[in-house]
Amino acid sequence: MRMIPKPRQAIVLVAGLLACLPAWAIDCRRAVEDPARLICGSRQLRAADQGLNSVYSAALAHANHPGELERSQRSWISAVQSRCTTEACLAKAYAVRIGQLAESYAPWCEARRGELQHDWRGTGGAFFEELSIGAGSFSSWLHQRPETSGRWSAQGCSLTLQAQGDSEEFRWILLDLGADRLRVFDLDDQDVTVYRRGDGP
User: Fold this and answer.
1) d(CA 174, CA 45)
2) Of 103, 200, 85, 84, which is closest to residue 156 (Cα–Cα)?
3) Which class does domain 110-197 fall in?
4) Where do the H-state alpha helices sit in the chain?
5) What whole-number distance in Å separates Cα of residue 158 and Cα of residue 93?
6) In whole angstroms, how large is the CA radius of gyration of the chain?
7) Which end of the chain is more exposed for a tag (fewer CB within 10 A), N or C?
8) Nearest-angstrom CA–CA distance, 63 and 14
9) Number of C-beta neighbours around residue 123 at 10 A
10) Contact 198, 119 (CB under 8 A)
11) What's phi and psi for 11, nearest 5 deg?
12) Structure confidence by residue, pLDDT tens digits, 96-108
């Protein structure tokens, strides 16, 4: 799997751009204490931070009780600040929290799952150039030529695409599914990817 770093001058640990939740804004030029120093010094943690912000935004958009989610997020920030002093601790905290947030809006994902079955075209750095999702199966094309195919499964907001004949697996969290776009967080690449509805190969 590829890792595409997205450097940022200022790292916002958890949905800092949302006005309803106070930002834990980290200025990497001045970060001297953990966990800010650890996040700024790690490409993987910076990517996980971006992913967490994206999943939190999705959870907040679909929350029945957004105030409760905001309070929960504040508690998580406080716990991470006081507990994590190593990269391993932060990486685990991010992974657990991303899973919790995705689970919080799982009913919305399940209700929209049928809309995944369509032809999609990748945009800006997407792993698949063209992707066709059918009833339990998927196929992809690169420059109009068959690339890979296999099966897909979903549980809550977690989507898994398993390539046929090998062990390659793509693990995504659904962030948004609209009339013309699919936005996912790639758990392996720690990256947000957008696909647009297309006409197929």
Assistant:
1) 20
2) 103
3) mainly beta
4) 36-40, 43-61, 66-83, 87-104, 106-112
5) 18
6) 18
7) N
8) 16
9) 13
10) yes
11) -95, 130
12) 999 999 999 999 9
Where along the chain do its domains lie? 10-104, 110-197
Residues 20-77 have pLDDT tens digits of 443 344 567 666 666 778 888 888 888 888 889 899 999 999 999 999 999 999 999 8
Torsion of CA 66, 24, 83, 185, to 10 degrees: 60
What the block records as the tokens of 62 is 């679909």
Q: In residues, how long is the chain?
A: 201
Q: Which two tokens stand for residue 158?
A: 């977690």
Tokens of 146: 């068959």
34: alpha, beta or left? (left if phi > 0; alpha if psi -120 to 50): beta
d(CA 83, CA 167): 36
Residue given tokens 């004949």 in the structure block: 165
Q: How far apart are CA 100 and CA 47, in angstroms?
A: 18
